[in-house]
Amino acid sequence: MAARNAGTARPGGPNRTCQFKLVLLGESAVGKSSLVLRFVKGQFHEYQESTIGAAFLTQTVCLDDATIKFEIWDTAGQERYHSLAPMYYRGAQAAIVVYDITNQESFQKAKNWVKELQRQASPNIVMALAGNKADVANKRTVEYEEANAYAEDNALLFMETSAKTSMNVNDIFMAIAKKLPIGPAQGEPTGTVDMNQPQQQQKGSCCK
Amino acid sequence: MLPYMAYRYVKNKREKNQREMDSDLDSMVRSIVPDKTVICVPNVAAKLGEDSKEYIPGTLSIVEKSSGVFIEWKPSEDAETSWVMTSDDGNTEMVHARSPEEKQKCGARVAFSMDVNDLSSFRNDEPKRDSGSGGFPSIRLICRDGSSQVPLFFKNTTTAEFLDRLQGYITLRRSHRDSHLVIVVDQKSEALAKSVSMLDENGDILSRFMQNPYMTAMTGFSKITSFVQDQVIPSVLNDTDAVTQEEKIRLMRELRLAEEQMRVHSDAAGEFEVVTQLELPPRPEIYRELPVSKDLWNSFKLSNGSYDPMKLHHLKMNVFRGGLNAELRKEAWKCLLGYRQWHESDTDFQTRRAELAKQYENMKKQWMSVTEDQEKRFTKFVKRKSLVEKDVARTDRTVPFFQGDDNVNLVHLHNVLMTYVMYNFDLGYVQGMSDFASPLLFVMKDEVDTFWCFVGLMELTQKNFETDQAFIKLQMNQLRDLVMIINPKLANYLESEKSDDMYFCFRWVLVWFKREFSFLDTCKLWEVLWSGQPCPRFLLLICVAILDSQTNIIIDNQFGLTEILKHINDLSMHLKVDEILTAAEAIFHQLSASQNKLPAHICQYLNIGESAVSSSNNSPSKSDPDRVDL
């Protein structure tokens, strides 16, 4: 929680607010929605209902030199709804691919998502691999070393997380925020953003 | 303290340039300033859902912090405070049934702190002071990202003082078209509006049109009004709330160019009128009836327990108009879902049910007897079993019937779904099916009856779950077509925001609004749909009715693709089922009265007009035409 309130926006200073689209992908019931709920609202529900279609939440985090606003798309995980996923990851600047450390098959599915994103998503997408349910390590079937090696081979951020205990939840979003391109550190943004127009989806970062 | 900290800060950063030092120092000073509560309104209660009569007492505040100004609501910290239930006469009763832990959990769930700059608009309802229903003033805050906070009810005061204080930080303006909707004005657009108003004073007809479209059209464009409105002026321009100032300038220029083209065209054609937009008749006023009682239901029966085929349509219309008394559902749902045939006598049904019970037990044994060794070679089965287990554990766990860790009802739900996997192995289990099964179990309280009702319900809905999602896509397209006819302004707006694929309605359509209404309201909505009246695809008219009611919020807030999805998802538990049903029925009558002008494909799937198949003379057979593709 402390990380979320770290720093203070300074009006007129070099601080900027940048908005990024982030999508969560992964097998059904690995805890995608629970991760988002923990990050955005600080809550955990033992019996979080399955996601139908997609859900959308926003959360802002502060870095030293910028404020990052995440537009978070939480998706349905079952294979049957796979065809909907491109609608949600198209144009995303970041993705968290989630698996359950107690479920080897979900790790295989996560690898498939990584491959799909590498083929079809934005080329510069920042990807993180999240091994969730780290609080039930006694039922572990996916070893940390195996997942870490896979992440290194594919240039992914990697953390084992627990939405239940909140372990590494803020950290994985912060790690993504630090890796996202903020743009040149200049006193004033070039040009002006027309505040009368609705916010447009852009592939690159958007500073205002 | 402060001077010393400032001194140390400067000493450590003396190499930095002056401007940077100044801004950093300012930040440090501001971070030391304590939060200041500008206003704190006690006895402001949050309402969890539309059907709920329970309010969570709390306090609503505006707080100035170092990082900005925030609107905050927190539940009352007094552990002894009970939840308040309002009676019809406006008196309040105290509720003591919930445990303190449960109250705390629910309160924390709806508590919020939002930056005042994230506020886009809000709904402000002030019931008439002396009205007999004794409603409370309420506010519902709508954020720029499309999300909404829960409705807040002011128990002891009006909203006026809170809003007065709020206007110290933001500028508010009431929507021109919805007096309950208050819009936060963007500062930049207000300044620009002053300069644009100078342009409006040139007095030419196009400027006057933009000021007062109706009057100018009546006097200057009477024969080509529809053409002008539809073809020349984007629909968004007809509503002043939605027109930004830059957009106004740009469109005025385009309009002058278009006028030249239009004049040439009308000269060449002589008297010229184009009707490109369907004008629908006004909506009739619709009333909901009381639920069908057991006595009324029984009056449609013959002596042997079967239903009089001559009265069947009337019975279904009664169910459509009012739903069913809860005590009647166990019996009536069997008929509405085709588990019991309308023409079956009591004796015949009992005989057949005994046979169906055997079939159920046999199929149940099939999956229960699969051994661990067999599972190793039966991968599809294992995957489906795993999916069922995961979803049963998280289906309707907030409904008392399914609460608790050792709840036998979860076992029954699991058994029904697993047996369906065996019954329909080609389809298997797909997420969303547990949402359809749980109300059936709640009503039937018996695995056999639940299972066969579920079979009937899946006959109505299983196309939603097919792999290629083709039926979902078809419904999204049909929904878009309907919105284009009923509410072209909204349809054009959605297209301009790249939302006209309608996928923000996916959840509504996939599970027939199961996630949008309370459990009991879902039961009511579904039996209305199962009646098959007044037309197939009535589900889509319900979607249109809701979207129609949200038009002003979506357009006035200038919601984009993501905000629209967020707003629609946040309507969950805040929709009034009777209001929506009456609006949808009124829309049906509008369309029916315009059948001569409707596109043929819409007449076809709504069963309107020449292509309509008569539904009043049902032959008592297993294939009930009313139940086809609801």
Automatic annotation (TrEMBL), chain A:
Enzyme Commission code: 3.6.5.2
Subcellular location: Early endosome
Upper lineage: Eukaryota, Metazoa, Ecdysozoa, Nematoda, Chromadorea
Phosphoprotein in keyword set: no
The protein, known as: small monomeric GTPase
Biased composition (Polar residues): 193-208
A single Gene Ontology CC term: endosome
Keywords, comma-separated and alphabetical: Endosome, GTP-binding, Hydrolase, Lipoprotein, Nucleotide-binding, Prenylation, Protein transport, Transport
One BP term from GO: presynaptic dense core vesicle exocytosis
Region feature (Disordered): 187-208
InterPro entries linked to this entry: P-loop_NTPase, Small_GTP-bd, Small_GTPase
Family membership: Belongs to the small GTPase superfamily. Rab family.
CDD domains (alphabetical): Rab5_related
EC class name: hydrolase
Single annotated GO MF: GTP binding
Alphabetical list of Pfam families matching this protein: Ras
Catalysed reactions, semicolon-separated: GTP + H2O = GDP + phosphate + H(+)
UniProtKB/TrEMBL annotation, chain B:
Biological function: Acts as a GTPase activating protein for RAB7A. Does not act on RAB4, RAB5 or RAB6.
UniProt keyword annotations, A-Z: Acetylation, Cytoplasm, GTPase activation, Phosphoprotein
PROSITE patterns: TBC_RABGAP
Ranges where the Rab-GAP TBC domain occurs: 323-533
Pfam families from the UniProt entry: PH_RBD, RabGAP-TBC
Main location: cytoplasm
The protein's name in its UniProt record: TBC1 domain family member 15
Subunit annotation: Interacts with non-phosphorylated form of RAB8A; phosphorylation of RAB8A at 'Thr-72' disrupts this interaction. Interacts with ARMC12.
GO molecular function, a single term: GTPase activator activity
Superkingdom of source: Eukaryota
Record bears the keyword Ligase: no
Gene that encodes it: tbc-14
One GO CC term on file: cytoplasm
Subcellular location: Cytoplasm
InterPro entries cross-referenced by the UniProt entry: Rab-GAP-TBC_dom (IPR000195), Rab-GAP_TBC_sf (IPR035969), SGSM1/2_RBD (IPR021935)
Keyword Acetylation: yes
